[in-house]
Amino acid sequence: MKLVRIAEYELEIDYDKTLSYYQNLPLIGEEDHCECLYCKNYGLTPSIFPNIIKKTTK
Ligand SMILES: [Zn+2]
Prior knowledge:
alpha+beta, binds zinc ion
C-alpha cells in the first residue's frame, strides 16, 4: 500500500493494482470511453490540473 496526499485528503492505495487497472481502460475523452459531451469536456481539462494532481498520476 502507498499513502497519497491530495490537498487535505490522505488515501491509502494499492498503487500497482490501481495503475494496471486504469492502463487497460480507455482514457476519459477517448471515443472508446464515452462519447457524451461531459466526458469529452473532462478529457480536455488535465492540462489545467494543479501540479499536485499531475504528480500523483505518474
Ligand atoms: Zn460520458
